[in-house]
Amino acid sequence: MPLTASVIDDLKKVAGRDNVITAPNDLRIFERDGSIEGAVPDAIALPSNTEQVAAVIKIAARHNIPIVPRGAGTGLSGGAVTIRGGIALQMTRMRRILEIDPVGQTALVEPGVVNQELSLAAAPHHLFYAPDPSSQKACTIGGNAAENSGGPHCLYYGVTTNHVLGMEVVLADGSVHWVSGDAADRIGLDLCGVLVGSEGTLCAITKIKVRLLRIPPSIATLLAAFPSIDTASQAVSAVIGRGIVPAALEMMDKVTVGAVEAHYHAGYPTDAGAVLLVEVDGVADSTRELMAAIRDVLSENQGYAMREAQTPAERDLLWAGRKGAIGALGRIKPNYYLHDGVVPRSKLPQVLSAVGEIGVHYKLPVANVFHAGDGNLHPNILFDLRDREVLQQVEEAGEEMLHAVVELGGALSGEHGIGLEKSAYMPWIFSPDDLEVMSRVKSALDPTGLLNPGKIFPDPERKKLPLAGRTGFAVEAKWW
Amino acid sequence: MPLTASVIDDLKKVAGRDNVITAPNDLRIFERDGSIEGAVPDAIALPSNTEQVAAVIKIAARHNIPIVPRGAGTGLSGGAVTIRGGIALQMTRMRRILEIDPVGQTALVEPGVVNQELSLAAAPHHLFYAPDPSSQKACTIGGNAAENSGGPHCLYYGVTTNHVLGMEVVLADGSVHWVSGDAADRIGLDLCGVLVGSEGTLCAITKIKVRLLRIPPSIATLLAAFPSIDTASQAVSAVIGRGIVPAALEMMDKVTVGAVEAHYHAGYPTDAGAVLLVEVDGVADSTRELMAAIRDVLSENQGYAMREAQTPAERDLLWAGRKGAIGALGRIKPNYYLHDGVVPRSKLPQVLSAVGEIGVHYKLPVANVFHAGDGNLHPNILFDLRDREVLQQVEEAGEEMLHAVVELGGALSGEHGIGLEKSAYMPWIFSPDDLEVMSRVKSALDPTGLLNPGKIFPDPERKKLPLAGRTGFAVEAKWW
Fold first, then answer.
1. pTM for this prediction
2. Residue contact B193–A188, C-beta within 8 A
3. Is residue B388, in this structure, part of any structural domain at all?
4. A226 CA to chain B: closest CA distance, Å?
5. What residue in A sits closest to B371 (Cα-Cα)?
6. For residue A268, what are the CA distances in angstroms to A258, A312, A385?
7. Is A182 a residue whose pLDDT tops 80?
């Protein structure tokens, strides 16, 4: 429903004339995020500070207009899609790093700061920000906090919630609060704990205080080939079972390795059934000792063609291949559909075999590139949207893959959130009673359901739509 | 208000005749926890399983009777005190370790399992449970989860919330839910995040799934003397500033060292102004390298008389001195009053100097023994309760110390919770608006305020009492 002229005028008064977008063609720019669905917002507001965020939300509350906070739009679960219309609250103009405290090892940032920029800014102090989504060149710290994002190095360092010490947030009534999640003063009820990862359904985030870590003095990065996904999975379990938690432990299957090697020439072994990328960090003696132990375990599990990066440039190249893997898959098909279910590590061979069979059944190529150490899958279903028939097949295959994950005792998402795309599957994991408790917390903080409606919680109406009815939108190739 | 015969009868029907205590003399056993205040409950229920917990809570809900879940009663903030009467829900009969999964490195336990018993049970699998409150020989995992407890090794390993993967909880309506806080499937709203540390105000905890860690292959423990608290504090900042996070980094002042040495003969240097106990763990090369670096930093900061434990027995003795320090202080005065404010590490010299001055002003001896690496103070105000005049002085001195902490940008509690004793100080940290948001979450999950009333949130009536009016209770010496 288009906003009235008077509401638009109010928005322009608080955010500035040039910071409110309502022209239909411009609105389409914000139609989607990195997921498969889209919807055009009624307006876009681009606030520059907390006061403007609070004022915009107050206007929305007064007129009962949905508000959808939004970062760089790299999310993979439809969290930033304005499925019920309303105002997209685009936070990327709030992109100042307000403080880096090298002694306390913290940073205070605005939500629009790009993930990688924070680590670059902290580097002169020999510090870095640990959570590193593969989209880190584009995604924002605010979006990361809203989605509780992960990344390859979260195996050792933990996900975003483990690094957020506090946040300034604006609630659905426009009130501004500081919530602290610092273990050192997590007193009273830990609201920060429930607001991180609430996917824009409980608050808009306007400032984030994060922990910075010392850049490790020594980093060792190893690529190893395996005859099959099964043997590589066994090696993953064996490494962790030996009591070693590497900084990162990533797997790529044969399809992915082929695409990556063609694109990056990083020296990935294209004959392998799967490769592992393993990284350890710490003091030099310790990384040498750990890497030697890891090489032994990998060898015992049929690992071969092991290659350790000898220079920082070689390390960067190995990682560029991993972090750019999904982009490289564009060589095979222009579009992909990606879920990020999690299984216990011991179930990796089973679930990957199920994923493979589902791909064969639907005649859809599937490429696996994922956080093996966490048991966090990323099966990429590859397709070409120009074949309009294929989309329903893709969604059904994705749903079957997630179902296989849940049947093996897994969870719907490791780091991409529930958003729009997985909300219908929440009842696979949660009883109606459990969901009701969650919705009581939602109602306590957002009684009218203003903030990011239609996300996380299953929508009874939406569920009744046939899958095909959900997909009238164009899907573009994504580069991250 | 005594419960009616019919309510008591109902309780006995669900929990068993012998598992409901109402005899006045027996009730007094549960009058207090490890804090300074007490109140006699109207009844004690000792449930054996989740169904009984749910049934007891449903009876309480029907009759609007307060419910106060309770573990071993070692808490230091009055969290388990039935200040509004009602039913003390004593969880210590639910003390089974239900599962230890050595591959997944997790344990599923009932809430009454004693902290140290879990590590002992996990030891044959070379695993341990990291959070280690000094009361770990007595305190329970359920109490730890309710209070988000810390301990010396939480500097490196994090507090309880970082180790809880999921919980079975009973809400105020008697409904039973599983909430997951596992980073691997923290999907939807992170209710586990807000329930851990909610101090019995949101739920009773009936099962806890925790992460177990590999016992490090090598542990190095060092005791170092310093001329003063100031120099020791500077050494603490210097170690962390060098990018080293030891597994534990504890400080004891001269008063404490004297008492500990008289009691344990652990070889603590009694001439020192302060001592640090530093521990690092990992693979052998790494601990050697780290400990060498730490020794250098300590030396540069006037550390002397450094002594590294050469055998596990020596290490145990050094730790016995630290963990038994508060008990040893009984040699000086029979009673103590203890707050656990937290300051930024860089503020340690300032806050300790303020604490000292407050002690002098009130003519009360103060012994400091605390988690220096975290900036988490534990000033023990020592007194003799037989001198009834002194108690008001003690509480006022404690309040002034906490005020000094907050003035230096610190927080009310690092690991002991807010409970009863610090609830009146919550407005020092939180605005009325902030507290109102917290109370909205409380109301969403416990609309009638049944669970542990009078805790965390400041009680306007209570605040008006003069300090002296709050203290009509006996205080016993505590041993942990």
1. 0.88
2. no
3. yes
4. 22
5. A184
6. 8, 17, 29
7. no
